[in-house]
Every structure is written in C-alpha cells, then in structure tokens.
Amino acid sequence: MTAETSQTLDRGLRVLKLLADTDHGLTVTELSNKLGVNRTVVYRLLATLEQHALVRRDLGGRARVGLGVLGLGRQVHPLVREAALPALRALAEDIGATAHLTLVDGTDALAVAVVEPTWTDYHVAYRAGFRHALERGAAGKAILSARQKPFGDPGYTLTHGELEAGASGAAAPLLGVTGVEGSVGVVMLADAVPERVGPRVMDAAREVAEALR
C-alpha cells in the first residue's frame, strides 16, 4: 500500500474478488484468514458492501457476490465496445466480412459490437445483441477452447452453417484480459473460410486484448 491508496477500499475490492472466485461463498472466518485481518474488520467490510447490494449473506452466514454487481457489469459493455471498434473496423474492411466482438453472458455468447464492411455487395446481417449458446457458432466455441487451454494459445475456430444456413464463421478468443471472457470473429456467406482469415482474426483478437489491458 502507498500513501495515495485507501487500505479500506483495497480490502473491500479484495473481498469482492475472493467472493467472485468461489461458487459456494465464504464465511467471515474464511475471509478473515484470506485477508489476514481480524473478524471485526471483515464484518464492517461486508456490512458496507451489503448496503450497496454488492454482497449478500445467506441464512448460513456465507457471503456471496450480490446482484448489485450486475448493474456495474452492464456499464462494462459500452467501454469494451469502444475499445474494440478500431480493430473490428480494420478486420471487416480487410476480410470483407461482418466482424464482431462477443462476450460471455451466463451460458450464452452475446455479440456486443458488430462492424459490417463498406465495400462488399452483400454480407451477413449480424446485429449487436444477438445471442446464442456457447456450444454453437465460432464465437462461442472459440471462448470454450480458451477455457480448455487456459495456459496456451488455442488458435482460431472455424464453423459452417451452425447459426445461419450457408454462413461460415471464424473466431479467436481474447487472451490475457482480466475480467473479460470473449472472442473476436467474422461471419461470411461462404462454404468455407479462406485460409488467411483465421490468422487475421487472431491478430484482431490480440489487438482488442491489448486495447482492453
């Protein structure tokens, strides 16, 4: 800690991170041990976070992340979208296909930013807000591939006809961005994705990841 930082805020943020990393919640004693502070400090932190609905405690006294974080999370999408747009525009223009940034939303893949090429006669209509199961489509499968290889580069994913008949997709996951799980990809009307598209999508995913770090 430095003179310019708040110890109490730091501890509160650490509480939220600890709770976010567990599915079953944590007791005051467990939090006290993990933070290296006494139980009284933890009680005060939890009481403050509860007032803002960022933490809730169940009947057994275990603390969990509260629904208030959803309101904060909704504000993240516009920021992520703005950071990703330059790379998406370049990708769409270069490939001549609709480019998109997709983030995880529960068990779904949610398109939060979409850029269509300006010079093509036709392209796939793909809108921000479109969602589908993670197990279908290149965008979702790219995210799942990153989960399966958390310490390596899973490369890119290709699909055909999984979300729209006659459309092919290519996507690569965002890697090394804390708190953001997603992918960058393109969708095109083609029987197969041209060979150069996969590596180009990976480059765009790296550009977006850099912008978000």
From TrEMBL:
Residues in HTH iclR-type domain copies: 6-67
Keywords, comma-separated and alphabetical: DNA-binding, Transcription, Transcription regulation
Keyword Zinc attached: no
Domain IclR-ED: 68-213
Spans through the membrane: none
Pfam families for the chain: HTH_IclR, IclR_C
Source organism, top-level taxon: Bacteria
SUPFAM superfamilies, alphabetized: GAF domain-like (SSF55781), Winged helix' DNA-binding domain (SSF46785)
Identification of the protein by name: Helix-turn-helix domain-containing protein
Source organism per UniProt: Streptomyces broussonetiae
